[in-house]
Amino acid sequence: MNSNEKRNEGLPFHPEYFDNLNINRSAVERRAASLPGRRTVKKEYQAAWLLRAVSCIDLTTLSGDDTAGNVQRLCAKALNPVRADILAALGFPHLTVGAVCVYHNMIADARNALGNSGLPIAAVSTGFPAGKISLEQKLEEIRRSVEAGATEIDIVISRELVINNKWEELYREIRLCREACGDAHMKTILATGEIPTLTKVAKASWVSMMAGSDFIKTSTGKESVNATLPVSLVMVRAIRDYHALTGARIGYKPAGGIQKAKQALDFLILIKEELGNEWLSNRLFRFGASSLLGDIERQLEHYVTGRYSAGYRHAMA
Amino acid sequence: MTVKDIFETMEYGPAPESDKNAMEFLDKHHRSFGLYINGKWVAKKDSFPAVNPATGETLAQVAEASPDDVDAAVKAAQKALPEWVKAGGHERAKYLYALARQVQKHSRLFAVLESLDNGKPIRETRDIDIPLVARHFYHNAGWAQLMDSELKDYREIGVVGQIIPWNFPLLMLSWKIAPALAMGNTLVLKPAEQTSLTALLFAEICLNIGLPKGVVNIVTGHGSVGESLANHPGVQKIAFTGSTEVGRIIRKNTAGSGKKLSLELGGKSPFIVFEDADLDSVVEGVVDAIWFNQGQVCCAGSRLLAQESIAGVLYEKLKIRLQKLVVGSPLDKGVDMGAIISPEQLKTISSFVEKGKNEGSEVWQLENIPSGGCFFPPTLFLNVSPASVIVQEEIFGPVLVAMTFRSHGEAIRLANNTRYGLAASLWTENINLALDVAPKIKAGTVWINTTNVFDASSGFGGYRESGFGREGGREGLMEYVKPKEEKAFADKTFAFKTSGNVKITGDGLDRTPKMYIGGKQSRPDNGYSLPVLTPGGQAVGEVGEGSRKDIRNAVEAAQANGKWAETTGHARAQVLYYMAENLSARKREFEERLVEASGYSVKDAALEVSRSLERIFTYAAYADKYDGRVHSTVSRHVTLAMNEPLGVLGIVCPDEFPLLALVSTIAPAIALGNSVVVIPSEPSPLSATDFYQILDTSDVPGGTVNIITGPKEVLAGELARHYDVEGIWYFGTGEGSKNVELLSADSMKRSWVNYGKHYDWLNNPLEKEFLRKASEVKNIWIPYGA
C-alpha cells in the first residue's frame, strides 16, 4: 500500500450497497473465457510480466507435515525465487516474492529463516481452513499471530453466514477480526468454492470490504474449487465499485489451483483490464501459490536461453 | 524497452500473428486469381485489387467476371445438378464433411487471410469466424445425411445464386453453401468485391477434395456480377445477404420470375438493459454487441435502451470501458478492433457521427487510435432520441446510441420503433420479464443476457425490412428445398364446371352486403356498389366496391387486434371449431349460394362446403400443434425456435372455389394468430359476404378477419403497398403475382404468390405449407447457470 494512501477503514454496515447485486454466471464466464484471447504478452513483455508475477506470490506451505526444515527451505526460496544467472540475464539485480504464507505455529521458524530481510510473513488464521471455531478463539488466534511476528493475517469467513444471508453478523465478525489485526494487514478469504452463487460471492466481497479488509482472497486452497477467472472477475469488479464509492483500493488475492505461468498471466491481464495498472503490484495483488513459481522459472529460463527448461535446474522450495 | 522497464510500466507490447503462410498462398497463385467455374480456374484479363484495409497495400489481383462468365458458371451448375442430386444424401454428406475437415485443417491460414483481407482482428477470425464455418459444414453434412428421412416431402430447388457481403466473408459463404449443397442444389456464389480471397481459398479446397465440377462455382467482381447472377434465368433461387437497398433492387428485379428468394439485410438492433441486470456483464455485452467486427455487423446491438433507474451508472461504466478498448493492427493478437473495410465505409461512418454531433448528442470516443489506415474509434452517443438520424439509420460501424426507458412496455415500444427487425438483446435476471418481453420484440433473434451468439443449428434472419428467410437450423433448410408435391400448382384450373344458366330463387329482398371491418359491416368508403353476376351473366346481387380507404380501415382494425396473437392455441382452436359448427348449421344456405351465384352443380356445391368444413377442422387442429423447437446449439443454452404469426396478413383469394379457397386461407392464418384482410373471389364474392354471419356468431374477435370486396388487382396492390401489412398471399394471374411481389419490395413484406398457376384447393396438398407461410421463426437464446 502506498505510504500516502490511506488504509481501508471500511464503511458502516449498509446493505443497500450490495442488496441489489445480481451476477449472471454465463455472462461472467463468457468474459472470463474471452479475456485470455483478447490480450497477450510475448517475448520480453512476457518475461517482465512473469517477473512481476513472481513479485506478487505469497509463497505458501500449509500442510499438516510442515516442519522447521521445509519452512526454512520455503523462506530461502522466497528470498531468491529466480536463479541468479537468469535474473542477471534479464537485467534484474534482485527480486523476492511478495511474502511467505504459513500456519500460526510456523511463524517463528519463518522469522528465523527470513532474518532481517524484511519479507512479510503472512499467517492463515481464524481456524483456517474451515473456520469452525468460536469467534473468541478466532480473535485470540489473530492476536497471537500478530504477536508472533506475522504482518499479514489471512482470515477465513464463516461460510454459514453467507449461505444464510446473515450479512450483518458476517460484517461484525470481520470487523472484530480487523480490530484484532491492529497494524497487520488483513486478507479475507471467502472460500468461494463453498459459496453457492456468484451473486453471494459479490455480496460477501462487499461485506468484507465494508468491514475493513485490506485484501479479499478467493480460497484457502483446501476447497475442491479454488481460484478461477470467473470468480475473480466478480470479486475484482466489487473491488472496482468499492473504490469508486470510497476511494479505497482493496487488494486481491486469488489462491489455489494456479500452477502454470500462462494462468498467472491470465490473472494479471484480468487485473489490468478490470482494475488498472495500480493493482499490478504486490501492494494490491498476490497469488496464493506453491507450485506456480517452478513453472515461471522454467519459462524465464526458456526466454533467456531459447531452450525448454527442466524442473531440476531450479532450486526447490 | 528492457525487461526492467516493462516490469515497471506493465504494458502489453506487440503480439503480431505471422502472415507468412497467407503470403505464400497468395504467391503460389502469383498474386492473381481467376474465376472458379466448372471445377477449373478461369483466367481473366479484367481484374481489380484485393486491398488490405489496415495498410492500404494490394494483396492480389482478383478477376472481374463478365455476364458471359456468369452464364458459364450457371450453365456449369445446371450441368452438374442431375448427378449431384442423384449422388444422394450420404454422398453429399461425405463431401460436406470433407469440406469441414479441410476448413479445420487450414484454420489458421483461413483466419490470417480473412484478417488481412477484411481488417477484422485475428482473435475474431481465429476464435469465432473460422470455427463457426467448420461448424456449419459439419452440421449440414448431417442434414445431407438425414434429408431422406427428415425432409422426405422435399427436394432440391436447382441452381442457386448466392451473393454475400464483406463483413463475415467466409462465414457468410458457409451459411450459404453448406445448406445449399446438403439439400442437393448446385450453386454460383459471388463474394463481395472487397473480400474475395477466402472464397478463393475455399475454391481451392473444393478442388482438393475432388468436389464434382460445377457443383460450386465462384465468380468474383463488383455489383454488376451479382446483378447478372440474380437476373440469370437459369437460377432458381437467390440467397442474398447485404444492404436493404440492394435487397430491394433484387426483389424488384426478380418479381414475377418465380425465383425463390431469401434476403438477410440490415438492422438497427436494440440492446435493452433492465434495472436488475448484471451491469458489469452488460458492459461486456455492449462490447460484444457493437465493438465486435468494428460494428460492421448486421445484427449489431447498436441501440442501447437503458432503464432510467440505472442508466447513469451504466453510462459511467461504459465510458470507462470504452477507453480500455484497443484499436490497432488486425493481425495483432491483443486488439479489440481492427480496420474498417474501406475508405468509403469509413467516410459513411464519419459522416453519421458528424450528423450525431451536429444534432447535439453527447459523444464519447476512444482517444487512442492508430493514424493512417481505415481506423475509426469506438463511439458512444448518450441521451439520443428516436427522432435522431443516428438512431434510425444503420451506421454499420462501431457507433452505439443510447437512450432511456421508464417501463418494460416503453422498452418494447422503443425497441420496435424501427423499420428493421433482425435481432435484439435483452438483459435482466428476471425470467418472467425476459420471457414476457422476448416474444413482443419484432426480431428474428432475441438474445437474453447475451448477444451475437451464433450456431449452425439455430435459424437467423429478420422481420420487417431486415429481410426474410432464415439461415441455419431446420428452418434455414426450407430456403433450399421445395415440396416434392409438383401437382399442387397447375396450369389448368381445378375448378368445377359451372353452368351459365341458373334459376334464381331469391326472396326478392334487396340485400347489399357491405364490407366486413373490425367485426362490423360497414359501407364502402366511396359509396359505390358493383353488380355480381353468375357465370352466365345474370345479376344475383351487388357488393360494395372496395377502395384503398377500405383497405386502410381494415388494416387498422386488424392491427388493433393484437390480442388474437396472444390468445392460446387452444382458444383459437375453439373459435375455429365454432366456425365450423356454424357453417355446418347453415350448410344448405352456402350450398345454394354456390349453385345460384357461382353456377355450381348441387353435388359440387355440397363437396365444396363439406371440404370447407373439413379444412376448418384441419387448421383448428393445428392451432395448438404447430410447435416450435428447442435447438441443440451451444452448451448451457436453451435456444427456443418459436413460430410466431406474421401479424397482419393480406389474403387475395382466387376467382375459383369462392368458399373453399376463402376458408383454406383464413383458417391457417388465424389458427396461428394472424389477423387477416381478405379480398374474396372477385366474380363470386357472395359466399364470402355470407360468411360474415358465421364470423359474427362464432366468437371471432372483431378485427381478426376483415373482408373487402371489389376490384381484386387494385385492392391487392393496395395491400402490397401498405406498410402496416406484414405479409400477403396472392392467388391470381401471373401479372398480378408479379405486381404483388414488386409492390411488396418497399416494406420487405413476406409474399406468397401463385404466378398465375392454379392450386388444388379441394385436396390441399400443401396443407402444412400454409402454416409455414403464415408464421415466422423467432430464435430466443437463453443461457443459464446458477
Average pLDDT rating of chain B: 96
Along the chain, the helix and strand elements of chain A come as HHEHHEHEHEHHEHEHEHEH
Q: Radius of gyration of chain A, Cα only, in angstroms?
A: 19 Å
Number of helices of chain A: 12
Give the spatial strand order of the biggest sheet of chain A.
7-6-5-4-3-2-1-8
Task: Indicate the overall shape of chain B.
Answer: globular
Largest sheet properties of chain B: 10 strands, mixed
CA-based gyration radius of chain B: 28 Å
Helix content of chain B: 40-55%
Please state the structural category of chain B.
Answer: alpha/beta
Strand content of chain A: 5-15%
Overall mean pLDDT score of chain A? 96
Number of strands of chain B: 34
Structural class of chain A: alpha/beta
**What's the end-to-end separation of chain B, in Å?**
45 Å
Question: Quick gist of this model?
Answer:
The complex is a heterodimer of chains A (317) and B (786). Chain A is α/β, with parallel strands linked by helices and 317 residues long.
List keywords for this structure.
heterodimer; A: 317 residues; alpha/beta; eight-stranded parallel beta sheet; 12 helices; 8 strands; 10% strand; globular; B: 786 residues; ten-stranded mixed beta sheet; six-stranded mixed beta sheet; 26 helices; 42% helix
